[in-house]
Amino acid sequence: MEKLPKVALPVIVVAIILVIVLAKSAVTIGSGEAGVLYKTFDNGVVTDAPPLGEGFHIVAPWNKVIIYEVRQQELFEKMKVLSSNGLDIILETTAWYMPKSVDLGRLHQEKGENYLDRIIKPALRSAARSVVGRYTPEQLYSSKRDIIQSEIFDETKKILDNQYIVLNDVLVRDVTLPATIKDAIERKLKQEQESLEYEFRLVTAAKEAEKVIIEAQGKADANRILSASLTDKILQDKGIEATIKLSESPNSKVIVIGSGDSGMPIILGNQ
Fold it and tell me: What membrane topology is given (predicted)?
């Protein structure tokens, strides 16, 4: 076996060192991520420059890059809270959040990679307890759901705005009440619905009765006016008109000129 030239060994060693250095220096940041640069010999975390964006980067081998996901993320939280009258309520929420990319260095320096458990979850729980504590179980179960959701979002956002985190939305997925309270509320809502339906039927019946009375009054007024306008003279004129039309009819008949007790011509008969 031939011995390697004396110059080959140093070259191989240098090449190995270069490969190691390059491997330590090369950083690839994926889609939806950003990197916080930590300079070991220069004041640690870089906070006065934007984080490293997506793609391939070369950094000094003695420095580090901490990669964060900066796209929108989802947090599902199920918690026990108290209503205004002290009853236990199970609240299920979903929050959509993302770190502020421009402040990623400060987030890492002040909160750390575990900012979800350190900041977001406590903020969401605190806001939920504060908001739910203002309402009764009945309000939570029915009419106030959207308002509660909006208030939890506003209070959580107020906390997170100064924590380098963007809160996009909060959704109240479900409100679970004690079984006895839920049953009582449902019975009450059913009774209220039945009461509204009964009132509606009463109003409808009253309107129908009013309509019948108005129609009857109208007919009575019309008959009274008609009766008052039918004088003997008018009746005679109408009778004469009818007699003339009868006489002009092609049907055979016998007409006696004269008048009966009413003053109208007498028709004896026809064939």
Answer: Single-pass membrane protein
Q: How many residues does the chain have?
A: 271
Q: Taking the model in full, what pTM does it have?
A: 0.61
End-to-end Cα distance, the chain: 153
For every residue of 51-70, DSSP letters joined together read: PB-SEEEE--TTSEEEEEE-
The helix (run of H) or strand (run of E) holding residue 129 is helix 121-132
Q: What residues pair up with 27 in beta bridges, in sequence order? A: 57
| DSSP code per residue over 3-56 | PPPTTHHHHHHHHHHHHHHHHHHEEEE-TTEEEEEEETTTTEE--SSPPB-SEE
> 3-state DSSP helix/strand/coil percent for the chain, to nearest 5?
50, 25, 25
Cα angle value 117/123/129 (rounded, 5°):
120
Name which of 87, 78, 172, 82 is nearest 133 in CA terms.
Answer: 82
What's the pLDDT tens digit per position in 207-253?
777 877 887 787 777 777 766 665 666 656 666 676 666 666 666 55
Tell me which DSSP letter residue 94 carries.
E
Identify which has the larger pLDDT, 166 or 255: 166
Measured in whole angstroms, the distance separating CA 81 from the mean position of its chain's CA atoms is: 23
CA distances from 246 to 78, 232, 243, 254, 263 (A): 95, 21, 5, 10, 17
What is the per-residue pLDDT across 251-265, written as a single tens digit (0 to 9) for each?
655 555 555 555 555
Give CA–CA dist 120/103, Å, rounded.
16
